[in-house]
Amino acid sequence: MMRYRTLISLAIALMTMQNISAQNSRQNTLKVLKNYADSLTILRHRLDSVKQENDSLQKELSDGRYYRLFAPTTYYRSGANKSLSLSPETGDEVTNAVDEAMMNVYLNRPDLVTNTESQLDQVGSVRDDVNQEVKQDVELVEQTVPVPDEPEVVPVGIVVTKPNFWKFKFDGFLQFMQNYVSNNWHKGGESNYSAVGAMTLEMNYNDKDRILFENKLEMKLGFQTSRSDTIHKVKANNDLLRFTSKLGLQAFRDSKKWYYSLQLLAFTQMAQGLKANDPFVYSDFFSPFDLNIGLGMEYRLNAFNGKLTGTLNFLPLAYNFRYVGRSDLFDANGMKGKHSLHELGAQFTGDIKWALTDHVTWKSRLYAYTSYKRALIEWENQIEFKVTKYISANLFLYPRFDDAAVRDVDHGYWQFMEYSSLGLSYSF
Q1: Going along 251-339, which residue ranges are E strands?
Q2: Distance (Å, rounded) from C-alpha 48 to C-alpha 14?
Q3: What pLDDT was estimated at residue 260?
Q4: 222, 274 in Cβ contact below 8 A?
Q5: Cα–chain-centroid distance for residue 311?
Q6: How confident is the model at residue 20 (pLDDT cuts 50, 70, 90)?
């Protein structure tokens, strides 16, 4: 408040000095104007000193509420309204002090008043955007990371290797088992406890474009001993030697499932097939031996996110060659007094592998051949229970139909073999 009083006192003193100067020398207008200018200069220096003493006063002096003290003397209605009204409107301290100072001028020196508020209203008010803060519209640019110095380029030798389209697989096990064989099983055998070993070798070619060439060699041999057998100390109860070779050519460019297929299938056994207390040999190496060549289409199965995989071969054109080296096995194999037999027919081969769980896998193979005179169907099922990486258990179920064999009184042309085993296994 003291600052306001000081400012107003300075203004009143200025006006008083103007009054004295005007009374003493009205005729010398130039002198009055000079004194007025000098007083303004003095006031300016005083205001500057006040600004230096207190920065906050600068903000107050720049306030537009003081403009009436320094503008040409004008009659404003606000001061008169506050003095003459019964219930005057009170403003802030600065406005009230300015109104009081202006009323002193109006009452003491009305001759200095040159304008009225009504005249100012006619001229117009100050533009609204004059007192607005000027803001810079600065566009910020994202700071860039300095570019590191690139090392000197060193020539690198590029080595291009030829892709290897061949894949090799091995699977084998050696297990003990409980075995059941029907009385009319075509290779003989006896139900008992025994041991079996198996090995599967695969060598497959896939150029990832159109050609498939797959080769698989399967060997399985099991032996048993039986107290009831007084003739044979050791007998083979599980015997298989089978080779499968397939050449596939992709049938459709946009499909990796259908292939034109040429399949070669050859199978026999490695040891003699015997029965307990029976000197007769029911099977032997190359007795019988079957060679089958088929031409047709192959469908590659892949379902359940790769858990069910396999191939289905439809071979409507098939040539089968059968050879029996032992003459006493001619009738049992439908040879009709000859060592060899040539047949034309149709063939179907299906091989699937289904990972039922992480530890249980079902492998199934269905083989069917017909010469339109005889029919042969073999359905091999192996359920593998993986105990550890090197220990597994197997359940093997093998129904078979062969109407070229001698018909059995109880089972007809159907034969069946089953065994379960537990032992060592290994694959890569």
Answers
A1: 258-268, 273-275, 278-283, 289-303, 308-323
A2: 17
A3: 96
A4: no
A5: 30
A6: low
Specify the DSSP class assigned to residue 181.
E
CA 126 – CA 114 distance, rounded (Å): 19
Dihedral, CA atoms, 189, 190, 193, 198, nearest 10 degrees? 10
Q: Encode 103-135: b = buried (16+ Cβ within 10 Å), e = exposed.
A: bebbeeeeeeeeeeeeeeeeeeeeeeeeeeeee
The C-alpha atoms of residue 106 and residue 79 are separated, in whole angstroms, by 10
Q: Give me the percent of the chain exceeding a pLDDT of 90.
A: 38
Residues with Cβ < 8 Å from 205, sequence gap 6 or more? Answer: 165, 166, 167, 211, 212, 213, 214
Q: Are 400 and 379 in contact (CB under 8 A)?
A: yes
- 340-355 and 308-323 beta bridge pairing: antiparallel
Q: Which among 289, 291, 298 has a CA at the least distance from the CA of 213?
A: 298
Report the DSSP beta bridge partners of residue 173.
Answer: 198, 425
24 vs 148: which has the higher pLDDT: 148
* Residue-averaged pLDDT of the chain: 82
Residue 145 host element (H or E): none
Alpha helices in 117-253 (DSSP H): 117-123
Query: Which residue did the predictor score with more confidence, 205 or 42?
Result: 205
Question: Looking at the predicted structure, is the pLDDT value of residue 2 above 60?
Answer: no
Element (H, E) at 342: strand 340-355
How many Cα atoms within 13 Å fall on the side-chain side of residue 334?
A: 20
* Mean pLDDT of the region 254-266: 92
Q: How distant is the alpha carbon of residue 237 from its chain centre? A: 51
Q: Tokens 């600004």 label which residue?
A: 51
At 360, phi and psi to the nearest 5? -125, 125
Find the radius of gyration of the CA atoms of the chain.
58
pLDDT greater than 70 at residue 129: no
Which carries the bigger pLDDT value, residue 353 or residue 125? 353
Predicted local confidence at residue 70, as pLDDT = 75
Task: List Cβ neighbours of 405 (8 Å cut-off, separation of 6 or more).
Answer: 184, 186, 332, 333, 334, 413, 415
* Tally of residues, the chain: 428
CA 214, CA 205: separation in Å to the nearest integer?
A: 6
What is the H or E stretch that residue 377 is in? Answer: strand 375-386
- Read off the tokens for 378: 């073999």
What is the spatial distance between Cα 243 and Cα 200, in angstroms, rounded to a whole number? 10
Consecutive H or E run containing 82: helix 77-84
For the segment 100-116, the average pLDDT, to the nearest whole number, is 81
Dist CA 419 CA 428 (whole Å): 25
Give the DSSP letter of residue 129: T
